[in-house]
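Field reference: sequence -> structure
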Amino acid sequence: MIQQEEVKSKQTDDDSDTSPHDLEMASDVEYSNINLSLAAQLSGAAHSFTQMQGDLDRQRLLGDRPRMVYESVLDDGLEGLEHQERYERLLRRAKTEDLTEVSGIGCLYQSGVDRLGRPVVVFCGKWFPAHNIDLEKALLYLIYLLDPIVKGDYVIAYFHTLTSSNNYPSLQWLKDVYSILPYKYKKNLKAFYIVHPTFWTKMMTWWFTTFMAPAIKTKVHSLPGVEHLYSAIAKDQLEIPAYITEYDMATNGIHYFQPITNTSSPAS
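Structure field:
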């Protein structure tokens, strides 16, 4: 009896225990699964890193990395600072260098004020020897004359009377001048009158105000005669050379336009 129970107990113990060989196999399978999972993760991470590095290299080579907001603001700020410093250097030169070569020509000067009290700057195209003058000194004299004026509102009267190709500066020079002058020059300019325009001035005006200076497009006014200016500028405030009035009378006659004299300017 006792012997049968011992045999039965032994069989029960053998059935309930797991053999060491089975444990070893299970451990190997589990370890292999862990290794495969880890290897897959590492492989995926390596692929992501390689792809990211490739994208960065491509951006560096092609220059297609978008600028961050702070980079854009920083670049624009530095560009504006450099632009201001360049103008300040030119202004210092304008105040110290001898510019009689340009000022003695008499093509650019201030002449009174308009009916709203704004300074009037006169430019006579015929007297500007574009191909026989130091254009750098011409720019310096422009800055010397206009810098104190453009701190407030002002107007320009450009007389194209009897000009020729010798008086036309290059487009590149005009673009350079416009880019050099600070914002106050454009902002405070309230009217730009072109008297005795030609086809050339109309084409130039259209091109310039369309592609270079659209902000001043509505401020430009082409006038066929001097007397059209009198609506905005009183006659005694407008000092112009005799050749302009003589040409005007020969072309348009005498008293061809009766200005409306009031306190407001139609071109303001």
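Note: The mean pLDDT is 79.
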